[in-house]
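lol ok so funny story. i was supposed to be doing the assay writeup but got distracted and ended up predicting the structure for this chain instead. priorities right. anyway since i did it might as well share w the group, maybe its usefull for someone
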Amino acid sequence: MRTRETWGTRAGFIMAAAGSAIGLGNIWRFPGEAYQFGGGAFLLPYLVAILTAGLPLLLLEYTIGRRHRGGPPAAFRRLAGPAEGIGWWQTAVAFFLATFYAVIIAWALNYAWFSASLAWGEDAAAFFGEDFLGVSEDPLRFGHYRPGILAALVAVWALVLLIMSGGIRRGVELANKICIPLLVVLFGAIVVRALTLDGAAAGLDAFFTPQWGRIGEVEIWLAAYGQVFFSLSIGMGTMITYASYLRRGAELSNTALTVGLSNASFELLAGIGVFAVLGFMSARSGTAIGDLVEVGGGVAFVTFPTVLAQMPGGALVGVLFFSSLVIAGITSIVSMVIVPLASVEDRLGWSRRRTLALIGVPMALFSILVYPAANGSHMLDAVDFAVSGYGLILCGLATIVAAFTAGRLPALAAEANRTSVFRIGRAWYACLALTGAVLAWTVAANLLDQGRNLYGEDGELDPLILVNWVVGGVSIAFGAVMGFVMRRRPLPAEPRGEPALDLD
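and the output, tada:
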């Protein structure tokens, strides 16, 4: 029976889990959602979603991982034999997510360099789309690679694979122990600077003052649940994998609460910083805060650079901001890459070196070949929607359904209660059922929205929707085929855990 590596400390696991949750989306997606849905009007639904969906789902995945001690395929096989395909599906989702996530880190790495001289000049939008990305009109035409993006992307993957080669303690845990404190210091400095800008108070008023008339809008609640789901790295197998390296006596409920609240606290910090900057923009331009920007990636790579050019000390703030994006991205992508690696290692018994060579390197090559091209931003949008709009949500829904239909929730609750400070029971079941309904609703809303935009103005099918379907279909098919192929292959003996320090 092989010995399974474990986390060196409880703090190491918490930092890794928090590092997975605190990523690029926290720094611009959460403020963007709050901006779009009325600032303070978004905060109440968000807090409700944390309590009713985020923490219950986090605890479910922690419990599955610790009890069944394996990457998603092995863990789901032990949970309920026919559910193994869900684990392979999550593996495919994590694969695609990591490949496009890496290029956003590469963009941020380039912009950390550009910030030193404010290289985008007076037209940040033109610089980003034309000079930097060189966006092609044909979304399916590959070629015309951007050298700066390509070089940065190679560097990102080299660092990620180096971290993964160190294993759990000397790789993932060590990297997060360095990156998370550094990220808090860097981003904290940005927030402090933002709060000293003229107009910052007006920005904070917009962030914290609820528009009570919007609380009843269904879209706000769906957006809040979606933000919690994405930001906590639920549905792609990361938390199942990370928890599988815990000692059997490790505490779960308090750990889930710590990670969930750490993630929420960082998102609030990001919201404070971004809205303070929006207040500055409003004071400078005379434009109302609600009419300043469009949400999305442009907030980071167009709007923020525009502000930096006008802000005293903007170059330094820019270096800090984009360095923060790079660090947050690294801690998150490591948690994505570990899913396919651990899935193969635990199900097929491969060594880490072999898995890196046959799984990690092809992931890197796929990313390097697809995304630095002139059509890379088009492909990124299409794959992102396939993963974020459907993949993560459906995988999370499948996890809940599998636990319910297999009748495993009472056993999982008993497993969590065995070492947890806070006991769970019927309220946990109710929250999971509510979350399943919200996720199903979110998928339906996305399908309806995509259906309305299925054909362009020329009456032809949008090619990016085809890419979206292909990526989503490949992920589902991979899970189904692997689940069928592996059904007769016995599981390796459940590994023993190494003694770990300071986990209880």
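The first strand starts at residue 3 and ends at 4. Residues 253 and 422 are 6 Å apart (CA to CA).
back to the writeup now i swear
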